[in-house]
Specification:
The complex is a heterodimer of chains A (142) and B (167). Chain A is an all-alpha fold and 142 residues long. Chain A contains four helices and no strands. In chain A, α1 runs antiparallel to α3 and α3 packs antiparallel against α4. Chain B has a single domain, classed as Ferritin, core subunit, four-helix bundle (Ferritin), CATH 1.20.1260.10. Classes of the chains: A mainly alpha (142), B mainly alpha (167).
Chain lengths: 142, 167
């Protein structure tokens, strides 16, 4: 996998993350569960910015940014706030893994950006009910 | 997900074999099926980089030890941090079995919960900065991934401590 392929793979995951956060936000009541709603909005904005940055990085690497699919599969049963929170947590768990893979495939400013995003997704998991892990994103090291 | 399922041995073996072989250390080098193949140019700066991260982890561990010594009731709260330090150290130090693990004298902390927690929080923040810097500077991508994992874990434990203090 080339560096450009790694960026494209990361962008593909970000398209899905942005879509899923949007769906989860639509299923969440701002008035009934304001803390969860705010966490979802913050997550959505972070991943949207991440997606936009990845588009720039792919272009800088000489590629055409992969486009988003029309829709992504989201668990239709995730309607209760606890299920929505768990689904958002799953996004961040997966995001750490994806960003660690990009760290391994990149250097310099791209790697610095990737580790920053990995750290953010790891810490954000605690806002979504997650707990601190010894090897987030790389459980096989444990 | 494009996760790279590497075992801890293959990960650090691949990441560190070259620099540590250069340093005459005994470390799980990857099998060389083709003895005639020219060796990959080693990134010797990575062995120094790992040594710096190990020293920083040992320092952070000493702060946690000092906190639990000063305020024994913090032992339960800080156990996950201590456990993570131990596992991160085990992986990094274990890659250099002949190396002498560094030591760090424990700081003296006042026997007050918030002060002790504050010292650990500051220590973890420093650890995170150092590990991030090492990650960005690593010549080996696999080593960078391991260090990014350490940074991510440190960030999680720091966030958990923040939640403890502000709760």
């Amino acid at each position: 996998m080339s560096d450009l392929d790694a960026l494209q793979a990361t962008l593909t995951d970000e398209h899905a993350a942005v879509y899923t956060y949007g769906v989860l936000g639509a299923r969440t009541s701002q008035s009934a569960t304001p803390v969860l709603y705010d966490a979802l909005v913050a997550g959505y904005r972070r991943h949207r910015a991440r997606r936009d940055q990845l588009r720039v990085l792919v272009g800088d690497a000489g590629g055409d940014p992969v486009v988003a699919a029309p829709a992504y599969e989201v668990d239709g049963r995730a309607l209760r706030s606890s299920d929505v929170q768990a689904a958002a947590l799953a996004i961040e768990v997966a995001s750490v893994e994806v960003m660690l893979a990009l760290v391994a495939r990149s250097t310099g400013s791209v790697r610095e950006w990737a580790v920053t995003e990995a750290v953010w997704s790891a810490a954000w998991q605690l806002e979504l009910g997650g707990t601190a892990q010894t090897w987030p994103g790389a459980p096989e090291l444990g | 997900m494009p996760g790279r399922l590497l075992t801890r041995r293959t990960t650090l073996g691949t990441a560190l074999a070259a620099p540590l072989v250069l340093g005459a250390c005994d470390i799980d080098p990857p099998a060389r099926d083709d003895a005639s193949a020219s060796p990959t140019p080693p990134p010797p700066e990575d062995s120094e980089l790992v040594a710096r991260v190990v020293a920083e982890l040992v320092r952070a561990r000493s702060v946690v030890d000092a906190a639990t010594s000063s305020v024994p009731e913090l032992a339960g709260r800080l156990a996950p941090v201590a456990s993570a330090h131990a596992e991160h150290l085990e992986l990094l130090v274990g890659a250099v079995p002949d190396a002498e693990p560094p030591t760090s004298p424990p700081p003296t902390l006042a026997p007050q919960i918030l002060r002790a927690l504050g010292a650990v929080r500051r220590s973890e923040a420093r650890l995170l900065r150092e590990v991030r810097t090492a990650c960005v500077g690593a010549a080996s991508g696999d080593l960078a991934r391991v260090l990014a994992g350490v940074a991510a874990s440190t960030a999680q434990h720091a966030a958990a401590l923040d939640a403890e203090v502000t709760a």
